Amino acid sequence: MLDSNEPILDSLTKYISKLVTKNVEERKLIFSLIKEMYTIRSSISSSFKRKGIELEKLGKFQYYINYLIGKLIDLSISHETKDTILKEIDDVIMAAY
């Protein structure tokens, strides 16, 4: 995260979706999945309440996370720090406006 004041969920959705795909509709799906999984994580960790998880959504989430890990490994070859990766993504996002 470049901005330490930015909420974690906003950072996760912005950077993960951009790293995983350029397709806008797929990025919207990733936003939705991350938010849903984060809500489930928060529910479990803060109040020990179990929430139902749709297995199809969980499978898609796992697929995107596995893809993300591979992408980060690839980026680690061409970037020396996490900040340069995030700056590159921010630059692409800003250029889209």
Primary descriptors:
4 helices; 97 residues; 77% helix; single chain; elongated
Describe the structure in your own words:
Helices cover 77% and strands 0% of the residues. With 97 residues, the chain is an all-alpha fold. The mean pLDDT is 84. It contains 4 helices and no strands. Helix 1 runs antiparallel to helix 2 and helix 2 crosses helix 3.
Tally of separate helices: 4
Number of strands: 0
Query: Which structural category fits the helices and strands?
Result: mainly alpha
| First and last CA, distance | 20 Å
Q: What percentage of the residues does DSSP assign to strands (E)?
A: under 5%
Fraction of helical residues: over 70%
Major β-sheet, in short?
A: none
Task: Catalogue the unreliable spans.
Answer: none
- Which value, in Å, is the CA radius of gyration? 15 Å
- Strand and helix order: HHHH
Shape: elongated
- Average pLDDT confidence is 84
How is this structure best summarized?
The chain is 77% helix and 0% strand. With 97 residues, the chain is mainly alpha-helical.
List the helices and strands and how they pair.
Elements: H1 8-20, H2 24-47, H3 55-78, H4 82-95
Helix pairs in contact: 1-2, 2-3
